[in-house]
Every structure is written in structure tokens, then in C-alpha cells.
Design goal:
The complex is a heterodimer of chains A (325) and B (589). Helix content of chain A is 3%, strand content 42%. Chain A is mainly beta and 325 residues long. In chain A, the strands form seven sheets. Chain A has a four-stranded antiparallel sheet with strand order 3-2-1-28, with no helix packed on it. Chain A is globular. The two termini of chain A are 32 Å apart. Chain B has 589 residues and is an alpha+beta fold. In chain B, the strands form four sheets. A 13-stranded antiparallel sheet of chain B has the order 15-16-11-8-7-5-4-3-23-24-25-26-27, with helices on one face. In chain B, helix 4 (56-68) packs parallel to helix 6 (94-106). The longest helix of chain B has 21 residues, at 146-166. Chain B is globular. The chains are: A mainly beta (325), B alpha+beta (589). Chains A and B meet through strand 7 of A and helix 8 and helix 16 of B.
């Protein structure tokens, strides 16, 4: 009870007068069937009213859209099975910027200081463009099987890049030219998140080992999984104003919340139809509004800081990614 | 009347020249006669209707529907739409030219995540970009110009051909999926304007057909398969590959679509119509390889595992394949383990009985998110459920297709040993065997399961016992022993004489399982007196000499020879040879 009151008290402080664009990537849907015409529309969806309504902005047909985000110059980048797509007009038209060598793109991260630079995490490693997608170059991780689930550009130093791999978390200090393992080795890393207030604080979610936290920019890591009864963590979201409050999306346990920087997690999945949460988003302008994207259960929204959830849209959809602009 | 129509079809096509290829010509005409009478929205029906002159108006209506039909999408659409268009464009009105062109602007075509998907996607993109050159980025669904699309497609197709000719396909020898390689290559061979691409597409057709031919028997695709649908595994003559064998090899004699017992799952899968319309002709040597079964032979191959993206140590480990081919049956096996997700078929004996369900095999029905995650990028704990949505049987304990990390094989001619070492706690802790009900005899004696299908004799000796479960078309033999094994002996009237003589010969075999409990190894002296020793850890010995699978060639047998990685494949038949050299794009005879 104390935890929930704390969440609500902090979450109540909404920014006024700001607009926020939410971007949702729907990979597929449990309703999807092969070779039929009445499949649900999937791909990229955008909301400018806090998730009250969503507008489809992606391709008309299925191309496996894993994640989409907007760069600081307004260009939208999308990580898809077909490669990395970009749109210069808010999603009306798209162009595949990659060729055949880049496929199964799971995540992208735009360099916050240079919107022409984008990193892509793929099933075949990390790739980078420095010219807005005209050309792409592999940035070899030095692994036999360089599967990468996630990539993160350190917003305080855009030459520092993190790659989530099956052999642990790798870090580059030279914009992807060379990579070295961090102290977090031999873990299958699913997601990397940077604290929105303190850039030296990083969080990762893992396949089997819960959550880890680094307070020194990735040099050392401490496990922060107390209370997590589900150790597969696909998503982590940090409260925009209070970094002690975090949300974790798990496989099997739905959403967990901590109000003390990961000292203790508490399950908070009331109303979630499916306990497999692959992405989370806390609105910057209305931090009491939290979204949880489930796999095969659609998008859920909480308006009370994650205490309770209601189905928002995309019933039975696979909501693979959420981002905010 | 039928003959008159056939003659008319031949006249329109202008291809019924007996000296060319009488088997193909007669059958292609017959096929087009049938397909052109269909009325489904199918690129193959459209092409057949137009090219036979049977129903141009109807074909135009169907093509119009096809450009709007969103039930068909992605890579399947990409190559078949452009194929139908190129086969028919001279007869089409301007409005349809425009609609087909617009489909490549307005339809978003998914590239897919398998080898066959990419072959179809890039073949479609290549031919579409070639058909409409010089057009800008805003006129294509993917925002790339004609030249960008053409270059990308050409580069990938070249990469795929080289890979297939050096280390093999990942989706190799598939009775189900061979259609998705042959049809795009037929279209590419027919319409590629670049003579090098055209020739290489023709060479790929030679390679795909030769690969099939060496393991073909009366319309059946024998041996182990990378991927196959369960319906096709338990009824080999119902597989799409049979349609191709019928058209190009002249086997089987019957028309698959007329025979309810062998009718393909998808009767509308008329992809062979593109073959009937195309100018590619099978080199006579390949048909001879497919049909001359005067001498039994051993044929080995090395293929590759489909791209491993995680939870492994190597992207494309080799697959070792051993097949024994006779005029009555084929016994073939992959070496075992996880070589493909979802649809692997590790071993079987397939016999020419003229009946459906003409096969016997065993498997361990394995299912695991980890296996799937080796090949698919979605989340490990999510994948099994997801794959089940499409393939319906992935997690079923009763499925008839599966790879398994707990299965290994060792084959020597017509003797096969299969070992199972299932880990405790596995989802499905049993092995299954498929035995068709229409066998002439099935009995058990002295530890052997004895089967007779016409003139073919199959004997299986399980190391540990199982039980019989009656099903619709088959008996299922199931054993819940986690450590188990099966000795398989196959013979025939031609090889062994009578059924009784075959059974009697089994008494001369010696099976030593004294080390089975401790090391999961066994020794076996077969009916020919050959001593075989096999351990689950990989030791394979014949008469005391160790067999190293790494010694297998890319192809090794009387008909096909190639060193792995060489890019040169030589076919041989009765003193003649034909070499496909993918390094120089040359064919030497």
C-alpha cells in the first residue's frame, strides 16, 4: 500500500502544456492467419492524445515491425524484419534504407546529438549509419554469433555504445569501432535502459537473471532483483522525474514496480490480461500514465502509475516496442 | 475431344516437338489443359489460360483480382505476380499493365525469414525492377529506385546461388518446399535479360533437379529432409515434389491431382504450370539419374544447417546425409540432432508400393523455445506458442516431423541404427514410429517388428520395447524409454528372395547392447555380416574402421560428385558427364 501511494504521489506531478507523441510497434497478432485478407492491421501506430486514439502510420501489410522511434530531427526510424525503414513525413511514406545484409532488426537507437547517426541491433550483430541511412556498416562485436537484442547510445557521451548480446553486455568507447565486454558477462541481455535523470545509471533486463543496475556508467553491476518472482525481464521503464521508481516487464509475471531504485520489486499486474510484457512506457508529460505492451494480449494502459491496467487497444496484438517523442 | 484440345494447346505453345523432350511435352500440355480450366485467383491459372488461348477474358478478370487480393502477400506474391505478368503481358490490356505495376508500388511485400522466402522475394524484385527500369524511389513499395532494387536482388540471388552450390542449401531436399525454389528459378531463367543471371538460374534448376533425382524413386523424394509437412511425410506421393517429378522425370505414371489418395494438400498449387510454360528443359542425363534404378547405390551429401543466430557455436554447421537407393525402396538419413527447426525429417524408408503412406520411420517429437530461438529472433519463451499458431503441431506429442537433440543415426547401405537419448524432464519423453496400416504384413518375432509392403521388406529391432496405438491410416509404435535405439534392416524380393528368406536372414544378425546402459553404444552384425558399432557420442565404425562424416563430399555417389566448397558439381551417367561450374558459370559436357 505504501508503495502504491508513493507511486501515485510522484506520478501526480504532470507537466502542463506539453504535447507528447507515442509510437507503438505491433509485430503481429494472435488473430493473424496466413494468406487471409481480414488480418488485423499491424506495424507502426502513433498517438498524440496519450493513447486515447491511435493512428496507423506503418506499412499496410505485415513486415514484422519490432521497434520504432523518432530521431531529434523528426525522422521516424523503424526496426523490421525487412530491415531499417525511415520516414521523413511522419509515417506517410517509408523507405527501406538497408540492403539484404541487414535483416531481423530488433531495435534501433538514434544518436541524440546527431540524428543522422543511427545504430541497429539485429540477429546478425550491430550495424550503424552515419549518413541518415544512405549507407550502413557492420560494427563487429567479435562474437561468433553476434545476436543483439538491444543497442543504446549513451546520451552523455555519444561515442559510448552498449550492445545487449547473448554473451553479456558489450560496450564501445569509440562509436562502435571496437567493443569490450563489461562486467556483466555470461548473461543473456534483453534490454538496456539509461536513467533519464542520472546518465551514469544504467539498467538491464536479462533472459534468466532478473534486473541489474550500474551506477558508474556500466563499469560495475549489481543485481537488483529482490521481489522479482519472474526473472525474464524484457522491458524496464524509469519514471521521468523520480528515478527511484521503475517498472519491469516480465515473462509470466506481467509488470513489477519498485519505488526504491530496485531494492525491492512488487508485482503490479491487476487488470493485465496477459502476463507477458515486452515493452513499457511512462509518459514524460503525464507520468501517472504508463503503457504496457504485451505479447498476444495487446496494449494496456494504466492511469494510476501502474497500479491497475486496462486494455487500451490492439486486442491480442504483439506489442513489441513503445517509444515517446 | 481431349486429344484435339491437347493438339490445340501444343499448337499455341509451339513446343510439342517430340525430338525436344517427348515426356515433358506431352505432360506439360496435359497439365496446361487441366490448369487452364481452373477458375481460382492464381497466377498459374492466369498464365495457363492466357498462354493456351483458352480464356483470355477470364484470365484478365482473375489477374485484376490478383492485383487487389490482399489475402496473398509478401514474397509469394512478389515472384508469382511478376511471373504471371511476364508470361502473359503481350496479351493484356493497358489497364492491367498499369495495375500490375501499381501493385509493386502499393503492396508492401514482406521479405520473410527463411531461405525460400528470400528466393521468392528477390526473384520477384529482380524481375519487376528489370521490367520497369529507371523509375524513382517513390514508385516502389520499399522506397528504392528500380536500379537499387535490381542491384540488391541480383547481389542476393548471386550470393544464394554460390552458397547453394558450395556448402548447400539450408532448406535442402524438401518435398514440400522444393516448389518454392524451382518455381522462382523457372521464372528467373525464363525472363532474366542478363545472360549470366539467366544461365545461372538454369544451372540452379539443373542442380535442384539433379539433387532431387539422385534420391528419387517413382515420384517419391526419398531420404532425410530438412523440412517437410507432416501430411507429406506420412504420404510421400502427396508432396508437391511429386508434381515436379511427374512433369520432368515422367514419374509417377498417374496424375497426382486426379488421385484422391495422393492429392496434394493444396490442390491449387499449380506452380508446375510455370514450368510447363517455360523454356527450361531438363537435361536428359538428370532424368536418367532420376529413373535408372538398375543398380542399387549409396549416395552421400553434405548440406548446411539453416542460419543459427544464437544458442550455438557456428552459423552454418554441416549436415551429413546418407541415402541408399534401390529400384524398390530408398533408405535415407540425416546424421541427427537439430539441423532445422520445426519440420525436420531425419530418416525414413520409402518404398515404391503404389499405395499411399508408403513409408516407415521413427522420431522423437521434440519441442523447445530454445531450438526455435536458434533460428528465429523473437523471444525464447514466446516462440513455441507462436510457431504453433502457424504450423499447428509444433508442441504436439504426436507430430510426425521434428528435429531432436536426442536423436542420432548411423547408416550403412540398407542397415540403419538410430539412437535416442532423451533428457529427463523433456516435454515429450517418448519416441514414435510410423507404420502404415496398408502394409501387407506386420508382425513381431524375436524382438523384430517385421513389415512387408509388396516386394519390400522392412525389419525394425527396438532396443527397448514399446506399444502399439491404432490411428486412422497407421499404427503408431510408441516407447517411453528415454534411452532407446532402433536397428533397421531393409530388403526386397529382388535382393533377398522370398519374405520368408528375409526373415530367416535376420537370425544371422547379432546385436550387442551390453554397453548400452553405460555408454549408449551398441554393436551390431547385419545380415551381410558387416560389423557396425555406434555410440551416441558420435563414434561410427564399420568392420572396425571409424567412419568420419567430415569425409563426405558435397555430393558423392555414382551419379553426382562434388567437393564441398568447390562450386563444381559433376553429374555422370553411362560414361558421360555434365559439370556445373558456378565459379565460371560454365556447363561442361
Amino acid at each position: 500500500m505504501f508503495i502504491m501511494l508513493t507511486v501515485l504521489a510522484v506520478a501526480g506531478a504532470e507537466a502542463v502544456g506539453q504535447t507528447e507523441t507515442l509510437v507503438m510497434s505491433v509485430l503481429s497478432s494472435r488473430k493473424h492467419r496466413l494468406n487471409v485478407s481480414d488480418n488485423p492491421v499491424v506495424g507502426v501506430f502513433v498517438s498524440t492524445d496519450g493513447g486515447e486514439t491511435w493512428e496507423h502510420r506503418g506499412w499496410k501489410e505485415y513486415i514484422r515491425t519490432f521497434y520504432t522511434e523518432a530521431a531529434s530531427d523528426g525522422v521516424i526510424w523503424s526496426a523490421c524484419g525487412n530491415g531499417v525503414l525511415r520516414s521523413d513525413d511522419g509515417g506517410k511514406h517509408w523507405r527501406i534504407t538497408t540492403g539484404w545484409r541487414i535483416t531481423e532488426v530488433l531495435k534501433i537507437d538514434c544518436d541524440p546529438s546527431d540524428p543522422s547517426t543511427v545504430y541497429a541491433a539485429t540477429a546478425y550483430g550491430i550495424f550503424k549509419t552515419a549518413d541518415s541511412g544512405e549507407t550502413w556498416e557492420e560494427k563487429p562485436l567479435g562474437l561468433k554469433l553476434p545476436f543483439a537484442s538491444d543497442v543504446l547510445v549513451d546520451r552523455s557521451d555519444s561515442r559510448r555504445i552498449f550492445a545487449a548480446t547473448e554473451e553479456g553486455l558489450l560496450m564501445s568507447r569509440d562509436a562502435g569501432e571496437t567493443w569490450a565486454p563489461t562486467a556483466l558477462q555470461a548473461k543473456q541481455i534483453r534490454v538496456i535502459v539509461q536513467d533519464p535523470v542520472r546518465p551514469e545509471v544504467l539498467w538491464v533486463g536479462t533472459e534468466n537473471d532478473g534486473v541489474f543496475r550500474s551506477s558508474d556508467g556500466g563499469r560495475t553491476w549489481m543485481q537488483r532483483s529482490a521481489g522479482l518472482r519472474h526473472q525474464t525481464v524484457y522491458a524496464i521503464a524509469v519514471h521521468p522525474n523520480n528515478p527511484s521508481i521503475l517498472y519491469a516487464g516480465t515473462h509470466g509475471g506481467g509488470v513489477y514496480i519498485t519505488v526504491n531504485g530496485g531494492e525491492r520489486w512488487t508485482r503490479s499486474s491487476k487488470g493485465l490480461g496477459i502476463p507477458v510484457v515486452h515493452c513499457l512506457l511512462v509518459m514524460k508529460t503525464r507520468p501517472n500514465v504508463v503503457f504496457a505492451g504485451t505479447l498476444n494480449g495487446g496494449l494496456y494502459r494504466s492511469t494510476d502509475g501502474g497500479r491497475t491496467w486496462k486494455l487500451n487497444s490492439q486486442d491480442q496484438g504483439q506489442i513489441w516496442g513503445l517509444s515517446t517523442q | 475431344m481431349k486429344l484435339l484440345l491437347l493438339a490445340a494447346v501444343c499448337f499455341v505453345l509451339g513446343s510439342c516437338t517430340a525430338q525436344d523432350d517427348p515426356v515433358f511435352d506431352v505432360r506439360s500440355s496435359r497439365l496446361l489443359e487441366v490448369v487452364s480450366a481452373e477458375n481460382e485467383v492464381s497466377p498459374y491459372v492466369i498464365a495457363a489460360k492466357v498462354r493456351t488461348g483458352r480464356d483470355l477474358a477470364g484470365a484478365c478478370l482473375l489477374l485484376d483480382s490478383l492485383t487487389r487480393d490482399r489475402a496473398m502477400g509478401g514474397m509469394f506474391y512478389a515472384y508469382s505476380l511478376i511471373g504471371a505478368y511476364l508470361f502473359t503481358r503481350d496479351a493484356l490490356p493497358d489497364s492491367l499493365h498499369a495495375k500490375v505495376r501499381l501493385a509493386f508500388r502499393d503492396r508492401t511485400m514482406y521479405r520473410g525469414d527463411t531461405e525460400n522466402h528470400w528466393v521468392m522475394y528477390y526473384t520477384g524484385l529482380y524481375l519487376a525492377a528489370q521490367t520497369w527500369p529507371g523509375e524513382g524511389r517513390d514508385t516502389w513499395f520499399n522506397g528504392k529506385s528500380s536500379e537499387e532494387n535490381f542491384q540488391e536482388a541480383a547481389e542476393w540471388l548471386g550470393h544464394w546461388m554460390t552458397t547453394s552450390a558450395t556448402i548447400g542449401q539450408g532448406e535442402f531436399d524438401s518435398p514440400t518446399y522444393i516448389t518454392t525454389f524451382l518455381t522462382p528459378m523457372i521464372v528467373l531463367h525464363e525472363f532474366a535479360e542478363d545472360p549470366v543471371m539467366k544461365k545461372r538460374a538454369g544451372m540452379m534448376l539443373d542442380l535442384l533437379f539433379a539433387d532431387f533425382a539422385a534420391e528419387h524413386l517413382e515420384g517419391n523424394y526419398g531420404g532425410g529432409h530438412s523440412r517437410d509437412y507432416p501430411e507429406d511425410i506420412i504420404n510421400p506421393l502427396g508432396a508437391p515434389s511429386t508434381m515436379w517429378a511427374w512433369l520432368y522425370f515422367g514419374k509417377p505414371e498417374f496424375e497426382q491431382w486426379e488421385e484422391a489418395r495422393f492429392r496434394p494438400r493444396n490442390r491449387g498449387g499449380w506452380e508446375t504450370a510455370f514450368g510447363a510454360l517455360g523454356s527450361y528443359r531438363l537435361p536428359p542425363m538428370i532424368r536418367s539419374i532420376a529413373t535408372d534404378r538398375s543398380e542399387p547405390y549409396v549416395h552421400t551429401e553434405t548440406k548446411r544447417v539453416r542460419n543459427v543466430i544464437r544458442l550455438g557455436t557456428e552459423k552454418n554447421p554441416p549436415v551429413y546425409k546418407y541415402t541408399y537407393v534401390t529400384s524398390d525402396y530408398i533408405l535415407g538419413s540425416l546424421h541427427g540432432g537439430i539441423l532445422q527447426p520445426i519440420q525436420q525429417h531425419t530418416w525414413d524408408v520409402t518404398f515404391a508400393s503404389g499405395r499411399p503412406n508408403n513409408t516407415i520411420f521413427t522420431l522423437h517429437p521434440y519441442a523447445s523455445g530454445k531450438e526455435l530461438a536458434m533460428f528465429f529472433p523473437e523471444e525464447i519463451k514466446f516462440l513455441a506458442d507462436e510457431v504453433d499458431r502457424y504450423h499447428l503441431v509444433y508442441t504436439s506429442p504426436d507430430k510426425w516431423n521434428s528435429s531432436s537433440p536426442y536423436e542420432r543415426t548411423f547408416q550403412h547401405r540398407n542397415t540403419l541404427i538410430v539412437l535416442y537419448n532423451i533428457k529427463e524432464g523433456e516435454m515429450h519423453p517418448h519416441i514414435d514410429g510410423f507404420f502404415p496400416k496398408n502394409l501387407d504384413e506386420r508382425m513381431e518375432s524375436a524382438g523384430w517388428i517385421l513389415c512387408r509392403a509388396g516386394k519390400v521388406y522392412v525389419a525394425l529391432h527396438p532396443v527397448r520395447r514399446g506399444q502399439w496405438i491404432e490411428e486412422t491410416v497407421n499404427w503408431r509404435w510408441r516407447s517411453h524409454q528415454l534411452k532407446n535405439g532402433v536397428i533397421v534392416e531393409v530388403g526386397s524380393e529382388r535382393e533377398d528372395g522370398s519374405w520368408e528368406a528375409f526373415r530367416t536372414s535376420l537370425a544371422t544378425t547379432r546385436l550387442d547392447t551390453s554397453a548400452f546402459n553405460t555408454t549408449l553404444s551398441l554393436s551390431y552384425r547385419n545380415r551381410q555380416g558387416v560389423d557396425l558399432r555406434f555410440s551416441f557420442d558420435g563414434t561410427r565404425m564399420v568392420n572396425g574402421k571409424e567412419i568420419h562424416l567430415t569425409d563426405y563430399g558435397f555430393f558423392e555417389g555414382p551419379f553426382l560428385q562434388s567437393e564441398r566448397g568447390s562450386g563444381r558439381i559433376t553429374m555422370r551417367y553411362k560414361g558421360r558427364s555434365r559439370t556445373l561450374d558456378f565459379n565460371t558459370t560454365e556447363i561442361m559436357e
